[in-house]
Amino acid sequence: MSLGAHTFSFPIWVEFGNGKSDRVGELIDTKGWKTALIITDQGIRKAGILDIIETSIDDENITYDIYDNVKPNPTESMVSDALGVLESGDHDVVVAVGGGSVIDTAKCATLLKTNDLPLSEYEVNTPADVTAGTIEFQTHPLITIPTTAGTGSEVDYWAVITAEERQFKMAIGQPPLSPGGPYLGADISLVDPELTASLPPRQTAATGFDAFSHALENHVAAGAPELVKPYTRHVMGLVSTYLSDAYTTGNMQSREQLLFGSHMAGFCENYAGFGAIHSLAEVTGGMYPEIPHGEAIAVFTPPVMRYNLETHPARYAEVAEAVGVTTSGLSDLEAARRGVEAVETLIDSVDLPTSLEELGVDNGDLERIASKSLETIEIHDNPREADAADLLEITNSAY
Questions:
Q1: Contact yes or no for 140/190 (Cβ under 8 A)
Q2: Is residue 7 a part of any domain in this protein?
């Protein structure tokens, strides 16, 4: 997302650590909330994760309902369904338990519960949209409990929802533009590494690499503030160190480090923008909703890095250092190129796809993917300017 030169406050109460999800009932009670709507998906229910949340809520005699029909790459209709359940009961708070799709759906349901415009009216496509202040009223209370180490959505101010008729992923969001001002996001976030233990290897890989891409694009984005760069470097180092082990063994220490990295990247997203990797991946996901977001991200990352580093080699040399490349004695350009090779090695180590063809994208759609990417908010912060022809060249390289 593009934040320009603005500075925003950060009002979310966060607790991170093993077992923190057990605190949800206690916190609901402390806030004086008596009824809750849990928003989740079928996979979370089948994995038994929801049992932990329900037990904690039951222990405080909080009544609750469950909406568990969120699917990957959520759509406007899913948000409408969740909103219908929220509005049909007297729910004091929403508890989102899941990955980015669940949390984004919950964010948008809580937005529409207290604000009157259609969801598309809160879409941001330009930097000016971000600071326009379209969200007029505080959103309905929301607690986020992530179960994947990937999106950072539990603490960021954004949501990505597909407009079905347009086959386009809308970026929905707003930071608090003044102290105490309304924003899109959680009131409380409980981040519990133990909830990621049952995540299958392929999802571990895709969501973990998504976290890496957030830090990468935040680090090199046009106008990225220096204050985020120590954190983005740290996240890139964490993911490159621990993702392969989390993927192959499921080791809890590695999962904990990945979740911490994802969570930290979520904070950074509130202060720095993305770029062409996310533009192209989200447009592709809007047209092909069956493609997991993190897999599209993996395909586009190396070709976008190669395009950008030609004009910003020093930024990408820093990326190379972050992922463990020995850069001593190398020019920035050579270091940057070795950084791309290291990222490709990371992608290969967790068996993520490396081409759009592998993802099932039709060659005839490449031009449309490139042109539609110019409509996204993320493209405004790409460190190197790119027009439709440039993006088509990148897309062809990714095919």
A1: no
A2: no
